[in-house]
Write a structure and sequence with these properties.
mainly beta, Jelly Rolls, six-stranded antiparallel β-sheet, five-stranded antiparallel β-sheet, 2 helices, globular
């Protein structure tokens, strides 16, 4: 694995270090020992999958409040997305800033989203599927969200007029 730090403390990009031969390739997506070195050493509590039919679908921005804050490890396994993290950790150098990256089935990059950050994505292709590993169980009473177009963050989504759920549209403005 090739682990690259992002501008957000605790957020990482993980690329495969491919061992290639005439059959194809092999590469590790997750290694407890290597993740422990970057302080991502909590248990994986759930593995979730999400499928979107249409290009421009936007999901998020979601997070769970403490004591159910979670680390997410996000990977696109079909299609492509623009994935966004918003740092909600008071005292962080990147507090109330956002970071975006393209994840796709072809680049096979994994994004590690730290606790205290909201996460969401927009599909860049039809028939896009995501898989993500989380370190905490889903807690409906601790579920929180930030509206995709909250003016405080001014996220630059690649596709205007997204397809988005009523729930995700209805999140209030974030109050720092």
């Amino acid at each position: 694995m090739v682990i690259v730090e992002t501008p957000f403390q605790g957020a990482w990009l993980v690329d495969l270090e491919k061992k290639t031969d005439f059959r194809g390739f092999f590469g590790r997506v997750y290694c407890y020992n290597e993740f422990k070195e970057i302080r991502v050493d909590e248990r994986i509590a759930q593995i979730n999958s999400s499928y979107s039919y249409k290009k421009g679908t936007l999901r998020g921005l979601h997070y769970q409040s403490e004591p159910y804050g979670e680390i997410k490890m996000v990977r696109c396994i079909q299609g492509a997305i623009f994935d966004v993290i918003i740092d909600l950790r008071p005292g962080s150098k990147t507090y109330c800033q956002w970071y975006g990256v393209e994840l796709s089935a072809s680049n096979r990059t994994l994004l590690i989203v730290p606790k205290g950050c909201a996460n969401g994505y927009q599909t860049l292709m039809d028939d896009t599927e995501m898989i993500y590993f989380v370190t905490e169980f889903y807690s409906p009473e601790n579920e929180r969200g930030i509206r995709w177009n909250d003016p405080l963050f001014n996220v630059k989504w690649p596709i205007s007029n997204p397809t988005i759920s009523d729930k995700d549209k209805s999140f209030p403005d974030f109050k720092p």
